[in-house]
Amino acid sequence: MLQLKPRLRKGGYTLIEVMVGVAILGILLAVGIPNMTDWIAANKARAASGFYLDGLSMARRQAVVHNARSRFILTPGTNGQFDWQVDLCFPVPGTPCADDEGNWSTTAAASAGDPEGTAGFRSVFRSAASLPPSSVLVPSVAPAGASAVYFTELGWVDTTIAGRLARLRLDPSGALAGDVRAAAVAVTLAGMAAQCNPAAAVPDSRACPP
């Protein structure tokens, strides 16, 4: 008796299978891309306080290393966050390093009083362009309007200059409000900068200094 062999299916996919696959892929992308975007933004927000801590620590360190005056200055960035810059000044008789007086270094040239001459320290500038915009991470300073910290040769904060920056706070808003905690960077009179939690209260070790 003649037996018929089963017909083997040829390789490949049917149109229906392709359409189902495309539909599933579209659903995964629709769900995954927003979540991935929020995840990236949340990570950047958590790291933002470290961006400012690095600048403050650098300013204090350079003052001690070079036995010079230093300053950490905030300037408005393009995304609503603050860019920062660290400058050095070597005081000479009759030319104090206060505010905009004195011979402060720039990103293009060393301070006129730098012992190393033109090969000396040049200001360091860091842009906040990589941080989340202020629409999702709101920066604020204390006291209001403060934008700079000046350090002495010993690394202490120069209290003779009024309106020094004591704290910079970052508050998440919008989609990040439920996923990211508020953060802050505080500077003590001893010149030490540290990250702290503005929502915590003493005696919690994470609380910001009063």
UniProtKB/TrEMBL annotation:
Pfam families referenced in this protein's UniProt entry, alphabetically: N_methyl
Please tell me the species this chain comes from.
Pseudoduganella dura
Traced from the root, the source organism's taxonomic lineage reads:
Bacteria, Pseudomonadati, Pseudomonadota, Betaproteobacteria, Burkholderiales
Residues spanning the membrane: 12-33
Q: What is this protein called?
A: Prepilin-type N-terminal cleavage/methylation domain-containing protein
**Keywords annotated in UniProt:** Membrane, Transmembrane, Transmembrane helix
According to the lineage, what is the superkingdom? Bacteria
Matching InterPro entries: N_methyl_site, Pilin-like
